[in-house]
Design goal:
Elements lengths: L14 H21 L5 H4 L3 H93 L6 H47 L3 H6 L31
Helix pairs in contact: 3-4
């Protein structure tokens, strides 16, 4: 009767089984390499201390790369912010120049209107006085030939004086509006000439700090005369 003990049985592997076993070992080795971070074979045999040092070095390199990347991104952001600020300054300068130019034009127009108003006022006063004189003469000699025509001329002068006075008042009112608009435009120009608010936020004014005076500490010298005599000398 054949011996059927498991300890004494010998099982022969077929060729296909040898190939499958080799493939399984290779797959396990590949997975181990992946777990080890695909490290070279020479690195896998490091001692724990060397492995920890190598891993710390890799972490330091990663941190340094992260810092460099963050620094580059910060520089890029600052450059972009500076370009945006420069464009904002340029637009504000253009607006300020346009507002200033318009304010100057309005001021000149206001002065011209006031000159016209003054001239019309003087003409109105002259026409009113001349018309009043003609009316007085016609009233003194109403029966003389031409008295009616003289009175009519006097009334025409006075009506012209009223028209000139109204036109002068309209010029003065327009000049006042121009002056008010010119002041507003100068205010806008002054605001545009100020640094942008975002630039003030980026560069806050440094408040002076009081300097603290630190008194030097006094070093107390040890008086050996007060030490007890132990009789060791």
């Amino acid at each position: 009767m054949a011996d059927t003990d498991d300890d004494e049985q010998t099982i022969a592997l077929e060729p296909d089984q040898h190939v499958d076993t080799q493939t399984a070992r290779e797959q396990r080795g590949a997975r181990a390499s992946e777990r080890d971070g695909e490290r070279p074979a020479a690195v896998v045999g490091l001692t724990p201390e060397e492995e920890e040092a190598r891993r710390q070095e890799e972490l330091d390199e990663l941190r340094e790369e992260d810092l460099e990347q963050a620094h580059d991104e910060e520089i890029e952001l600052e450059a972009r912010d500076e370009r945006e600020l420069e464009e904002l300054r340029r637009r504000r300068e253009v607006v300020a120049a346009a507002e200033t130019s318009e304010a100057i034009r309005l001021s000149e127009a206001s002065r011209e209107l006031r000159r016209d108003g003054d001239a019309k006022t003087r003409q109105a006063m002259s026409d009113w006085a001349h018309g009043h004189h003609l009316l007085d003469e016609a009233a003194v000699r109403p029966d003389e030939p031409g008295a009616a025509a003289q009175a009519a001329a006097g009334r025409r002068y006075q009506r012209a004086a009223v028209r000139e006075d109204r036109s002068a008042e309209a010029d003065y009112q327009r000049a006042d509006r121009y002056d008010a608009e010119a002041r507003e435009r100068r205010g806008v120009a002054q605001q545009e000439e100020q640094p942008p608010a975002i630039e003030a936020v980026r560069r806050p004014a440094e408040t002076p700090q009081a300097r603290k005076f630190v008194h030097p500490k006094k070093v107390r010298k040890h008086d050996r005369s007060t030490e007890p005599d132990l009789g060791l000398g």
